[in-house]
Structure formats: structure tokens, C-alpha cells
Amino acid sequence: MMDLDMIPYYGKGYIEEQLGHVRFKIGPKSFFQTNTLQAQRLYDVVVEFAALQGTENVYDLYTGIGSIALYVARYCRQVVGIEEIAAAIEDAKENAVLNNIDNATFYAGDVKAILTTDFAERHGKPDVLITDPPRAGMHPQVVEMLLQLEAPKLIYVSCNPATQARDLNLLSQKYIVQKVRPVDMFPHTHHLESVALLELRN
Ligand SMILES: C[S@@+](CC[C@H](N)C(=O)[O-])C[C@H]1O[C@@H](n2cnc3c(N)ncnc32)[C@H](O)[C@@H]1O
User: Fold this and answer.
1) Cβ neighbours of residue 188 under 8 Å, at least 6 residues apart?
2) Left, alpha or beta for 70 (phi > 0: left; psi -120 to 50: alpha)?
3) Tens of pLDDT along 62-85?
4) Which residues are catalytic?
5) What is the mean pLDDT of the chain?
6) Which ligand 1 atom is nearest residue 142's CA?
7) What's 174's domain CATH number?
8) Does residue 122 fall inside a structural domain?
């Protein structure tokens, strides 16, 4: 599907959702959380865990249409989002304009390839790093890069606690898990979304 052009036969060719203070335009090739009501609760947990003061440089890995990045943009100095689906990044940029957000920048590509020490030098080291990978979790090279970047605060959003636990174990070299909060994103199923707050060890 990803390599085919989309031809809308009926309607606008995209959908729109409102999550709290942010309005999202979502194209057919872009990921968006399936449960809008709970997605807002999920992002509120991220905001709570991040406890932003307005001065922070935030990275949002696996940003999709910039959902979390745009949601937290008003609470930080700048936010940088990375996502592999180019069409989703086009949506993210459009959504930033739609919401008058001018402190968010977005990059299309595999996190493994884009997130390098060079990238961090250009964009400034992250004070808070949010990561929300697919069910497979993060590639070991991405975990390794996170350990090199040493963001003081890391927030790991996951829809698969098994791979999240695997990655938290790898990150425990340098991070302490302060808290984990489940969000019932998929009612009547055994699936859940899990948000972990990690802090860099002294
Ligand atoms: C669980 S979704 C989260 C999206 C977004 N944070 C949200 O809440 O809507 C994971 C996203 O990661 C993207 N993705 C998967 N593998 C990736 C990779 N290797 N590099 C960058 N993005 C990737 C997917 O396209 C998807 O948009």
C-alpha cells in the first residue's frame, strides 16, 4: 500500500481528529492511535511525566504525524520529530502550520539512520527524549544511540510491554525506571499501552 498513490473516490482523502488543544489532519498512509479519547489520556501521561518547564529541547522518536511532538510543543522550547513514513512527516509539517506551532521540526527516515551524534550536534542534545516505537520495540542500534545521547529524561511509550521490558533492560546500564503507567487504549482486549519514565543515573 505504501508504494501506491492514493486516489480518493469519496470524501476529502484524509480524516481529522481533535486531541485537546491540537487538531490533526491524518492521511491514509499515516499512523494514528485507534482510540482518540484514550490517546489524549496517553499524551497527558507523557506531559505529566515530562514535567516540562518551557526551556527544554525535546526529541520525539517514531513521531507518526507528529502527534506527541505537536501535543507537547507548547510546553517546551523546541521539539524534533523523526518518522520513517514520508507521507506522515508531510502530515506532521502541515499539522504544525494548522495549529500555529513554529517550534517543531520533523525529519523523514529510519530513526536508526537519522538519529546520529551529528544530528544531535545540529539540533542540540535532548533534555527529554520521547520514544514510541512499533510493537517490535527499538533497534539495538537505536538503544545504543540513546545510551550515548544521555538525555536526562527518557519517556518510553509502548504498545508491547514485552519489547518495552527488553529495551528498558538494555537502557538500565545508564537509566533508572522511575515509574510505569498503563493506559487502557484497547478496551475488551488484553492489550494496553505502557508509559515508562526513565531518569539518567548520576
Ligand atoms: C506506535 S506508532 C507511534 C506514532 C506516534 N507517536 C503516535 O502516537 O501517533 C510508531 C510509528 O513509528 C513509525 N516507525 C516504525 N519503524 C520506524 C523506524 N525504523 N524509524 C522511524 N519510524 C518508524 C511507524 O510508521 C509509526 O508511525
Assistant:
1) none
2) alpha
3) 999 999 999 999 999 999 999 999
4) 159
5) 96
6) 19
7) 3.40.50.150
8) yes
Which residue from 68, 63, 62 is spatially nearest to 19, judged by alpha carbons? 68
Mutate to test the pocket of ligand 1, among 62, 63, 68, 129 (most ligand atoms within 8 A of CB): 62
Ligand 1 atom nearest to 62, measured from its CA: 12
pLDDT of 1 higher than 70: no
Structural domain for 159, as ranges: 15-200
Nearest CA to ligand 1 atom 9: 32
Tell me the CA–centroid distance for residue 69 and ligand 1, in Å: 12
Beta bridge partners of 104: 79
What's the structural domain count of the chain? 1
For cell 527518557, the residue is: 154
Give a yes or no: residue 41 inside a domain. yes
Is 2 a member of any domain?
Answer: no
Q: Is residue 7 part of a domain?
A: no
